[in-house]
């Protein structure tokens, strides 16, 4: 079998990048990690992801794949061990559905809450919490993880909640995950954080606090100028991929 | 399988509803189509089948509801696996199809909708420019992915054909609103030809809405959007 060359272009804190790392590590795939400065993008990144110019980008034997959801499915289809998505088509559809839902309503919602103030912030918070309740409902009756006994696709997609959301809550002086209101998710977070591919491999909290403080300030100050004329908030999510 | 085992909850103007319908036709699966009126209040069945988003399309397979058009198309591809494949078999080609379908839904479609919902001439021009830019990117993607064959999926209609093709009649409506051609010989020759092939395909032509009827609907939809925005929150 030919040697496979796998590279991952990433950014140290990015949730979508961590998804790809976790997936590769669960599959036991060796890869070279290349850190990108997303504020000073390299020619390599621009060449590999000309459409979005974002991380993560996975490069496998010279083929570049972008967008974390797309990359995850590629990884699952290319390396068959430790499947991430369930086998049953209906369960797969459900996993994909909740992943999309969580990305739109929780990741974007929490980010919007972080970068806004006053009534807008309150509204974003309420919507995010409402969405989180649906995810809490999905966890009830599940064994260890959304994927069952082992970490799967939906755990990986939502994994950012374990390490990133607490930082956003602190930076934004807001609470989304009240442990009393969300016992299932809270327990899931603890299990996820203790998983071998996650444990001790997360970015340092103090560095994250500084970074997100800077980002939320920078975006909050431009958000009023950036407001699209149809009233939609144009705050950019950290969708580094 | 009984006809009532497979149902599609949809709405005739919705481009997203076309997707599962085309996919089921490609797989020769009979289904019952149930029309929802988008401009009126939502039916019990819709609210029960898609409580989270309350949107069409919904595929009802037996007692299982599946939501979100591209997720439904993948489900159809995986369940009726003996029919022609909708996604390619190679993982990298699948990734390319998924990548561009996501681009279409997340970046290109909002620009298209932006033309319809534009409040000012400037906003309209900006949205039109984004639609055009996107079409140029998709023209390039077509060149790479079709590899000289008639469709993004090769010899047959595939996932990405369905993802983009479902917007073709709306694109005609937007061309009318913009008073200009967006698919052109000059910039998007391959896509222009592909659009004719796609629209006349046997799995597509009977479900595509009529352009005039859709244009009329577009006017009503635009009025509804602008009115909703005008209401002080």
From TrEMBL, chain A:
It is found in: Cytoplasm, Cytosol. Pfam families: GST_C, GST_N. GO terms for cellular component: cytoplasm; cytosol. Residues 220-241 are annotated as: Disordered. Keywords: Cytoplasm, Detoxification, Transferase. GO terms for molecular function: glutathione transferase activity. It catalyses: RX + glutathione = an S-substituted glutathione + a halide anion + H(+). Residues 88-219 form the GST C-terminal domain. It comes from the Eukaryota. Residues 4-83 form the GST N-terminal domain. CDD domains: GST_C_Tau (cd03185), GST_N_Tau (cd03058). Its EC number is 2.5.1.18. Its main location: cytoplasm. One of its GO terms (biological process) is glutathione metabolic process. PANTHER family: GLUTATHIONE S-TRANSFERASE, GST, SUPERFAMILY, GST DOMAIN CONTAINING (PTHR11260), GLUTATHIONE TRANSFERASE (PTHR11260:SF474). Belongs to the GST superfamily. Tau family. This is glutathione transferase. It comes from Theobroma cacao (Cacao).
UniProtKB/TrEMBL annotation, chain B:
It is found in: Cytoplasm, Cytosol. InterPro entries: Glutathione-S-Trfase_C-like, Glutathione-S-Trfase_C_sf, Glutathione_S-Trfase, Glutathione_S-Trfase_N, GST_C_Tau, GST_UstS-like_C, Omega/Tau-like, Thioredoxin-like_sf. Residues 90-221 form the GST C-terminal domain. SUPFAM superfamilies: GST C-terminal domain-like, Thioredoxin-like. Its EC number is 2.5.1.18. Keywords: Cytoplasm, Detoxification, Transferase. It holds the Pfam family GST_C_7. Its main location: cytoplasm. GO terms for biological process: glutathione metabolic process; toxin catabolic process. It catalyses: RX + glutathione = an S-substituted glutathione + a halide anion + H(+). CDD domains: GST_C_Tau, GST_N_Tau. GO terms for molecular function: glutathione transferase activity. GO terms for cellular component: cytoplasm; cytosol. Residues 4-84 form the GST N-terminal domain. Belongs to the GST superfamily. Tau family. Is involved in the conjugation of reduced glutathione to a wide number of exogenous and endogenous hydrophobic electrophiles. This is Glutathione S-transferase. It comes from Theobroma cacao (Cacao).
